[in-house]
Amino acid sequence: MPSLFKHTNFVHYWIGQIASSLAFQMLTVGIGWQMYNLTNSPMALGLVGLCQFLPQLTLTLVVGHMADRYNRRLICVFSRLIMTMTVAVLAISNITDHISATIIYSCAVMLGAARAFEMPANQAILPNLVPEALLSRAMSAIASAREISVIAGPALGGLIYLLGPTTLYSTSSLCFLLSSVIMFFLHYNFVVKAKAPINMTHLLGGLRFVRNNKVILGSVSLDMFAVLLGGATALLPIVAKDILHTGPWGLGLLRCAPALGALLMSIYLSRRPLEHSVGKIMFAAVASFGVATILFGLSSTLILSLAALTLMGASDMISVVIRSTLIQIETPDDMRGRVSAANSIFIGSSNQLGEFESGVTAAWFGVVPAILIGGMGTIAVVGIWMYLFPTLVQRNRLEKDNA
C-alpha cells in the first residue's frame, strides 16, 4: 500500500471518494428516518428508492456514452455539485418548515439522475490514475475506504440527526461540496482514443458486452437478484422504531452493520485473495446472504439484528469483489464507461429498486414476512442461477482460464 499512496492523484481521488460516500450514507439515514416520521408508511420508503433508480435506468445509454467521450473528471465534478445543491434544498426546506414527502421524492429523483452520470465516469477513472500493476491494490483501497464511510456515515448521521434534520442535511451537502472541489483539482487528462459514430450500436455496446460474456452476465445478475430480493435496508427505519424500539442512533448502527461485515471481509480477502473455485465461492456467499436475511427477519433484539446484518455485508462483499474484478479485467478502457453504466443498472436495481420491492412487500404482507420472503427468494435464485450459468459455477480463477 505505501507504493500506492505515493501516487498523489490517487490519494486525492481516494479522499474525494470518502467525502462523497460519507455524505451519501449520512443522507440515507436522514431521508429514511424523516420520511417514515412524515408518512408512517413502508410504501413511502420504497418509493424513495424507486425515485432514485428510475433516472439511472432511463439515462443508462446516455451516461455510458458521455463517460467514454468526454472528460470523466468534469462529469464527476458537475454531478457532485448537483448533489450538493439538491441536499441543500432539503436543508432549506426544513429551515423554512416546508419539508414534505413530495419534496423528498423530488430530491431523490435529482440525486438518482446525478448519480447516474457520476457512477460510470467515476468507476472508469481509477484505472487511469495508477499503473496497471497497482490496480488491484487501488481497488482494494477504494473498497475499504467506501466501507469505512458506510460504517461511519450512518452512525454519524444518526447522531447528527439528534441535532435536527437541518444539521444533518447541511453536513451532507458540505461533504458533497468538498468531494467536488477535490475532484476538480485532480490531475487527470482524458484522451478519447477514437470517436466512433454515435448510433445505437455504439450506445448499446456496454449492454451487449455484458450480455455476450456469460460469466459477467451471470455474476452481475446473480448479485442483482440476490440483493433485490434480500435487501431489507429500506425497512430499517421501521425495524429500528417498531420492532427493536430504538431511535435514530439505533438506525445508524443498523445501517453501518453490513458495512462493518464488508470491511472485515475485504481485509480478509486482501490477505487471502480468492485464487481457486471463485464461481462456487460466489454462489455460497450469496446463499449465506439469504440465510442471514432470514435470521435478521426473525430477530427481535438489537444484538442479533446487528450480527445478521454484519453477516449479510460480509457475504455481499465476496460477491462484489468477484464481480468488480471480472469486469475490470475483461473490459477494454474505451468501453469502461458504457460497461460501467450497464453495471450501474444492476447495482441500482439491487439497491434502489430493491428498496421499492421491500416497501411494497412490507405494505402487503408486513415487515417481518417481507424480510423472510426476500431471504428465501435469494436462496431460490442461487439454485436457479447455478442451473442457468454452469460456466460461472465452474469458474476457477478470477483471471481468464487458460483452458
Q: What class do helices, strands and sheet pairing give?
A: mainly alpha
Number of helices: 17
Largest sheet: none
Approximate shape: globular
What's the average pLDDT? 81
Secondary-structure element order, N to C: HHHHHHHHHHHHHHHHH
Low-confidence sequence ranges? none
Helix content: over 70%
Give the end-to-end Cα distance, rounded to a whole number of Å.
33 Å
Strand content of the residues, in percent? under 5%
Total strands: the figure is 0
Radius of gyration: 20 Å
Task: Give your account of this protein's structure.
The chain is mainly alpha-helical and 403 residues long. The protein is 80% helix and 0% strand. The chain has 17 helices and no strands. The protein has helices at residues 8-39, 42-58, 60-69, 72-95, 101-125, 135-161, 165-184, 200-203, 205-212, 214-230, 236-243, 248-271, 278-298, 302-330, 336-365, 367-388, 390-393. Helix 10 packs parallel to helix 15 (336-365), helix 11 packs across helix 12 and helix 13 packs antiparallel against helix 16 (367-388). The chain is globular and about 50 Å long. 56% of the residues are buried. The model has no long low-confidence stretch (mean pLDDT 81).
Q: What are its keywords?
A:
0% strand; 403 residues; mainly alpha; globular
Brief account:
The protein is mainly α. 80% of the residues lie in helices and 0% in strands. The chain contains 17 helices and no strands.
Topology:
Layout: H1 8-39, H2 42-58, H3 60-69, H4 72-95, H5 101-125, H6 135-161, H7 165-184, H8 200-203, H9 205-212, H10 214-230, H11 236-243, H12 248-271, H13 278-298, H14 302-330, H15 336-365, H16 367-388, H17 390-393
Helix pairs in contact: 1-2, 1-6, 1-7, 2-5, 2-15, 3-5, 3-15, 4-5, 4-7, 5-15, 6-12, 9-15, 10-13, 10-14, 10-15, 10-16, 11-12, 12-14, 13-14, 13-16, 15-16
